[in-house]
Each structure stands twice: as C-alpha cells, then as structure tokens.
Amino acid sequence: MIILDIVFYSFVVIVCIQVVFYGIVFGSFAFHNPIQPTPNTTPVSVLICAKNEAKNLLAFLPSILKQNYPNFQVVLINDASSDNTLEIMEDFAEQYDNIKIVNVRNTEAFWGKKKYALTLGIKAAKYEQLLLTDADCQPVSEHWIRDMSAHFTTKNTIILGYGAYNKIKNSLLNKVIRYETLLTAMQYFSFAKIGIPFMGVGRNLAYKRSEFFKTNGFINHIDVRSGDDDLFINEAATSQNTSICFSPSSFTTSIPKTSLHSWFRQKRRHVSTAKKYKPRHKSLLALFYSSQLLFWIFSIILLIAGFYWQFALVLILLRFIVQMTAVGFSAKKLNELDLILILPFLELFLIVFQFSIFIANLISKPNYWK
User: Fold this and answer.
1) How many angstroms separate the CA atoms of 63 and 324, rounded?
2) How does strand 129-134 pair with strand 163-165?
3) The pLDDT of residue 111
4) What is the pTM of this model?
5) Superfamily for 35-259?
6) Which one, of 44, 123, 118, lies nearest residue 80 by Cα?
7) pLDDT digit string (tens) for 37-77?
8) Domain residues of the chain, as ranges?
C-alpha cells in the first residue's frame, strides 16, 4: 500500500505538471489570436540548399519562383550533388533573372557538410532578410514570402514558421508523423510566445543576415552535422528578437516518409541535436516528455490496482480535457484537425517511438544529412 500511496501522490504531481504544460504553456499559442502585421516590400533572399534534389526542384521550385512578392531573390545552393541538380538549377536560372546559384564542389563539401554549403549561400545572398526552406518543400500559397517577411521589424530578426507534411489518405503512419510535427510546432511556437524560444524548422524559417553573422553562424556546432535550423535558433533566438508566423498562407508542405524505418532514421538525426540545446531548454523538454511517460504508466498502475481509482479517473479525465482543448485549438490553427479523434493513440505511440529513438541513439550514432 505504501508503494501505491507513493504512486498516487506522484501521479497527482504529474497531472499538475501536464496541466501546466498543456493549459498554460501550450495554451499561450493555442488560445492566441494573431494580429496579422502589415505586409512590407523589403527585399528577401530565399535560400534552398539541395543535395541530389533534381526531381524535387523540378516539382517544387516553380511555386517559389511564382511567389506574389515585388522583390525577391532565390539562392540555389548545390551541395556537391552527384545527380543533375546543378543542371536543373542552371535551366531555371536561364528562365528567371532573380536566381543566384552557389555551387559547392566535392573538394569543399567535406567540411561542415550542409552547414558549410548553407553558409556560402548566406554570404552570397543579396538581401538582409533571409527566408529558408528545403528543396522538397512547397509553399501552400503565393503569399508565403509576404506573410513570413511581414513579421520582420527592427527588433524581430528571427521568424519561426510552420512546415507541415502532406496528408496521405488511410495512412496511420502519416497521422503519427503529422502529430509529431504538430506537437513539435506547438512546443516551439508556445515557448517562443512565453519568451523562451528554443528551436525552429528549416522547412520554413526566416532570419536576418546580420543575426546570422552576429551569432558567428554555425561555428559553435559545426561538428554536429545536423542542426542547421534548431541549433542555430537555440543559440541565436531570444525573447526580444523572435516572432512566430502561423497564418494559413504562410505554411510550407513536404512529402512525408512512407515507412516506419525511414522515419525512424530521420528522427534519430533530428533528436541527436537536442543534447546541444541550452540547459534550461533541455530541462523543460525532458520534464514534458517524462511527465507524459509517467502519466501513462501511473494511470495504468492505479486503474489496474483499483487504488483510489475514482480520484485517479477524475485526474485522468481532467488531463485529457485540458490536452484535447489545447491540441485541438492548435490543430485548428495549423490545419491538422483530423488528428484529434485518435489523439490518445497517437500520443502513446509517439511516447514509445521517442523512447526507442533515445535508446537507439545511446547505442550508436545516427546517420547524418545526406
């Protein structure tokens, strides 16, 4: 009984932690009514780093080149591709005079990998305002540049956007991937809202060149092959210089993985950068994940044992109500409402999945970006 007493009172604490996260921290984004800033016409350089992305450039680059914005440049960075990526870039450059090609050769590419290539692209960019995406990403509207750049001010030098994944009908894995993406966005948008920005995603991210050079670029984590987006933001973002953009026309979409194995490998690379986060960010993320894990473990123990089960059930329902509300409002903002119906399953699957990644990364180092 003493053990069950400890479990029960620990469970009460865990539920309180979860309610604070979902109700207050994530609620800062979920219940936030955005005020769309006045669009500006300040020139923008759009950067796309591509390695063996000929097929994706053909499919998605036109949607960027046809953006409804008065003055923008597209910097195409060929990161030592072995396919015809460079030739595709050159073909587009013959048709559009606002394209700048940066060709990184094999003799250079060993140093820093993508971060080195991206640094060369940033140095070659013509304009102060930089908007970054990936070669396999597509803006959902012609107003992507307008919406993202509108958040730049003298004070706001970093803009966090949302990079969604395409929906695949009748695919449970697709729902899991999109739920993980939604939860990650909730986290980085919410923490930015309360003044603790900690990451962004390279599929949809903007910052000023001056901010990049003030932070010395990627030099402090150049030894980590991944993290050109989240590690840079973790180092450079503050409560004073960061803004978020989640208007529906500002999203980008990407093609998601279609096998659990390939997604597992991708997430291993992504998660491996978290050890480089600032201590308070690691502590908050660890607290959130561990409280999620313990919530499920303690819930199952108390309900099976029938120990104070009435009180346990009330606490479980309270936590789910707060969670469903916060996630539901966030999902509506980010066009992911179809995920809500199976939220408990998605959450439990993701907890187990993330624990598996943690164990795998302890055993061996993950493969890096291409």
Assistant:
1) 35
2) unpaired
3) 54
4) 0.94
5) Spore Coat Polysaccharide Biosynthesis Protein SpsA; Chain A (3.90.550.10)
6) 118
7) 888 889 999 999 999 999 999 999 999 999 999 999 999 99
8) 2-29+280-363, 35-259
